[in-house]
Task: structure prediction
Amino acid sequence: MSAISIESDETRDRRSLVQLTPTQRKVMQGVHSGMLNKQIAFDLGIAEATVKAHMTALMRKLNVRNRTQVAIAAQAWSGLNQDAAGAPAH
Result:
């Protein structure tokens, strides 16, 4: 008999977030902080069009449709990072 493996939403989310590039993670954090694309671009020293390209890639990878959902995913990512470090997630 083979064991059935059930993957939790958190495990699935953790795996999809691991696939983000460092710049995509920084863009996602900027969105979570409420920054505009122009502000994120300035902070990262990249063009606003590049931020938009990263946003498109983020939305595809996270399977979300809008900026608000990216911000919510960023909150979950923050919690996952805190859990991995052994700190309490809030």
In short: The domain at 11-83 is CATH 1.10.10.10 (Arc Repressor Mutant, subunit A). The chain has a mean pLDDT of 81. The radius of gyration is 15 Å. Helices lie at 9-18, 22-32, 37-44, 48-62, 67-85.
